[in-house]
Amino acid sequence: MGDRLHVSGGARAVVFKRSRGSCERCGLEWPWALYLFAVEEGGSASSANLVALCGACSALRPGPFAPLLSQPTLRERMRAANNRRSGALPLNAARRRKLIAERGGCCEICGVSGSDRQLDVHHRLGILRGGDDSETNLLVLCFACHHHLQPCAAGCGRWAKKPAMVCRRCQDQGRLIRWSGG
Fold first, then answer.
1. Which domain holds residue 119?
2. Quick one: which H or E segment has residue 98?
3. What is the number of domains present in the chain?
4. pTM for the complete prediction?
5. Is residue 130 located within the same domain as residue 81?
6. DSSP H or E segment with residue 149
7. In angstroms, rounded to a whole number, what is the distance separating the alpha carbons of residues 39 and 50?
8. Same structural domain, 60 and 85
């Protein structure tokens, strides 16, 4: 077999939907054992020029290939592990829409409506820091507020608004310590 074929996630999804996770030659229903090959060698890696084949059907086929199912990213693997650990349901598009509606359809920081600005769902404790998709770990924020948050540099687990590096609580604690002479 040849080099690796570079396929976008969108093209991969279209081929998966078209083939229903089966080999497009013999019909083997095992998506983890399917590979994408270019129909017209040297052509683009668009969904129209890709075919999903099992190992047996592609054994003598030359040229680059890619697995039909891509490997999950570190963030996706961490999210799944964190959700398993806590028992939280994964955050999908339907759950995201429901959460936004339940929280009033507006930003939880500035109060702007979802009809005025795009709303995002934000994790209070980030996925890579051990956060999960539980209701208590999620915030509905407008695009602007979401863009201006960053983890507190003091390591408390809270969020600071840019350009500040430290959250309000840690700033207040620092002032109290300095004021009390400690």
1. 73-147
2. helix 93-102
3. 3
4. 0.55
5. yes
6. strand 149-151
7. 6
8. no
